[in-house]
Amino acid sequence: MDKISEDRPHNGIVLETSPLPFKPVEHFGPVTRLKPWFIAQLRGQSPEQKMINGTDDRIRFESHGWRYPIVLFLHNITDSGNLGAIIRSAHYMGVDAIAMATRNTASVDDPVVIKASAGATEATRILQIPNPFKFLSDSGNNGWRVYAAEAPPPLAENLSFTEDITPAALDAKNTSPLVSFRRTLPNIPVYNHNPLARHPTILMMGGEHSGIDAKLKTRAHYQVGVRGVQTLDVGVDSLNVSVASALIMLEMLKKPANVKAAKKDPKAGANFLF
């Protein structure tokens, strides 16, 4: 057992398992609320990959009677602890799938990732994205909307807003930690926008140091960030990526108060909204 486990602690038990399934995806297809799944166009797989990953191109999601699917897309997340924490949060929050770039991102098979995820790697649908730019472009053409997570520009000391930050961010009635901001993309009032009630959504998170790749950022429809209130500037101008992703997922997955009750379509076998 010591030899099989390469002298790692085994407590008298050694289990041989197959690799985790990571379906390679080209892009997502259109989504309708009448179906509890959407199509992920798969890239060609070897016979061995098909045995591990399967060939079903349908990605099931639970609408809970009100929402479209949400997929978390990760690019340049190189810290294994961060990646594991993000997967754990995504599973806990109810994200429908995690899409990961095949390059410049930590491996899910890393023991640190598996431990930090607290087992969520085994229960979360994880997809591989060989060509991130094409994935975002083609999915966007099929009705998906991409939200790029960025650190917002700093507020002025007197809390007056600049042209880069929506006035809604400073509205006393706005209890959301999210703020949308304008760079080259549209400005939206996040706290009454409710992305998931409107369209299938891809939330894109970038790396710990350089953030989202500039080329990929051009494929986003909106930018969104987590606002902070700094009382003393000590050089902390943003959140850890795992914390930021959890906060944004939490806000996006909140059921809006103005969403009407869902009815059951006996023919479609899924919830839909009037």
UniProtKB/TrEMBL annotation:
Residue intervals passing through the bilayer: none
Protein name (Swiss-Prot/TrEMBL): Alpha/beta knot methyltransferase
Entry keyword set: Methyltransferase, rRNA processing, S-adenosyl-L-methionine, Transferase
Entries under InterPro entries matching the protein: Alpha/beta_knot_MTases (IPR029028), MRM1 (IPR047182), MRM1_MeTrfase_dom (IPR047261), SpoU_MeTrfase (IPR001537), tRNA_m1G_MTases_N (IPR029026)
Example of a GO MF term: methyltransferase activity
Span of domain tRNA/rRNA methyltransferase SpoU type: 70-249
Signal peptide region: none
Lineage: Eukaryota, Fungi, Dikarya, Ascomycota, Pezizomycotina
Similarity comment: Belongs to the class IV-like SAM-binding methyltransferase superfamily. RNA methyltransferase TrmH family.
GO biological process: methylation
Pfam (any one): SpoU_methylase
Organism domain of life: Eukaryota
